[in-house]
Design goal:
This protein starts with a helix and ends in a 7-residue tail after the last helix. The radius of gyration is 38 Å and the shape is elongated. Helix content is about 40%, strand content about 20%. The protein folds into two domains: about 80 residues; about 230 residues, 2-Layer Sandwich (BirA Bifunctional Protein, domain 2). The chain is of the alpha+beta class. The strands form two sheets. A seven-stranded mixed beta sheet has the order 1-5-6-10-9-8-7, with helices on both faces. A hairpin with a 2-residue loop joins strand 7 and strand 8. It binds phenylalanine (PHE). Phenylalanine (PHE) binds next to strand 9 and strand 10.
Length: about 350
């Protein structure tokens, strides 16, 4: 009997049921009522009294080993079945394709409008030094825009800061000295402002710069008129108001007729019929000179517009914070746009 127990123990230990069916066979063979182990227990009656203790222990070990194995494998197969249901690779793919962010949609549209008339895309770093963000752009030493309240400084003297506008890219391109220049530079900018429905400390701008011989303010107006009608529609009107920027002379701000009410007056345009969308002007000769360009031969125009503002106009979004919240209910509405 001892040999028989040892032999069965060996069989139990080496059995490798790989499926539920094989495990059931294992159970029937060893543990069911008529299985091998219960039948050994039946034979136990015949064992001589002095061997009973030893045989009893061996038999129990065998039974426990078989039961343990059965239980473990049962659990494992159940787990596996659950996980194969979760990862059924034969299921059809869900039609989840994602979509572009509204800011990306508008940035790409602006790019393509300007690319059609010969502008090329330029880029610059988001972390800038004082020279490219301020000094080369003719900011006086005490100009309030340099103040800690507006600018996120990363280091003081020499100054390193997050760029406060994409005009820094103008400087980087002009420094390279390849003329003529006709670029647009989209990108993120940073200002130390309280977050509200109309302002954020991170936002996006597109800078435009054209430097050549005989560039005039009329060229600037015509290019921006072309942009406004392409972007907002052919009925759009534009107007210029005198303004001031350290890096342009003359300077202006441009308004477009409100695309919501068509200029009649509504709460988007605050009942004026006009919405301001950008700052612009003729590049100040000081800026050309600071970048190594001869201002007696070359002239240029520049403009900068906020992408958030015109995206809000185009899609009638009334809170700027929506762009940064990653709320799927908002983002999903733009899935069909390209
Ligand atoms: N950099 C200016 C701003 O951030 C916009 C601007 C760009 C104005 C180019 C004139 C020319 O407000």
């Amino acid at each position: 009997m001892k040999d028989r127990i040892a032999q069965l123990l060996d069989e139990v230990q080496h059995a490798v049921p790989e499926t539920k069916e094989q495990l059931e066979e294992f159970r029937l063979k060893f543990l069911s009522k008529k299985g091998l182990i219960p039948s050994l227990f039946a034979d136990f009656r015949l064992v001589a009294a002095e061997q009973r203790k030893e045989m009893g222990m061996l038999l129990n070990t065998l039974k426990q080993t078989a039961e343990e194995k059965l239980k473990q494998l049962q659990e494992r197969f159940e787990e596996e079945q659950k996980s194969t249901v979760q990862f059924d690779t034969s299921l059809p793919v869900l039609p989840e394709t994602g979509g572009r962010h509204p800011i990306s949609i508008v940035r790409r549209e602006i790019n393509s409008i300007f690319e059609r008339v010969g502008f090329v895309i330029a880029e610059g770093p988001e972390i800038e030094d004082d020279f490219h963000n301020f000094t080369a752009l003719n900011f006086p030493e005490e100009h309030p825009a340099r103040d800690m309240q507006d600018t996120f400084f990363l280091r003081k003297s020499p100054d390193v800061a997050l760029r406060t506008h994409t005009s820094s890219v103008q400087v980087r391109v002009m420094e390279q000295g390849k003329l003529p220049i006709r670029i647009i530079a989209p990108g993120r900018v940073f200002r130390n402002e309280a977050i509200s429905a109309r302002a954020h400390c991170i936002f996006h701008q597109v800078e435009g710069l054209y430097v050549d011989k005989d560039v005039s303010f009329a060229d600037l107006k015509q290019t921006l008129y072309y942009f406004a009608t392409e972007f907002f529609g052919p009925e759009t009107r534009i107007r210029f108001r005198p303004s001031y920027f350290p890096f342009t002379e003359i300077s202006a701000e441009m308004d477009v007729s409100c695309n919501i009410c068509g200029g009649k007056g509504c709460n988007i345009c605050k009942y004026s019929g006009w919405v301001e969308i950008l700052g612009c002007g003729m590049v100040d000769p000081n800026v050309l000179e600071a970048c190594g360009i001869d201002s007696s031969t070359y002239t240029g125009y520049a403009f900068g517009m906020g992408i958030e503002r015109i995206t809000m106009m185009k899609y009638q979004i009334n809170d700027l914070r929506m762009f940064f919240e990653n709320d799927m209910r908002f983002l999903r509405q733009f899935e069909s746009f390209v």
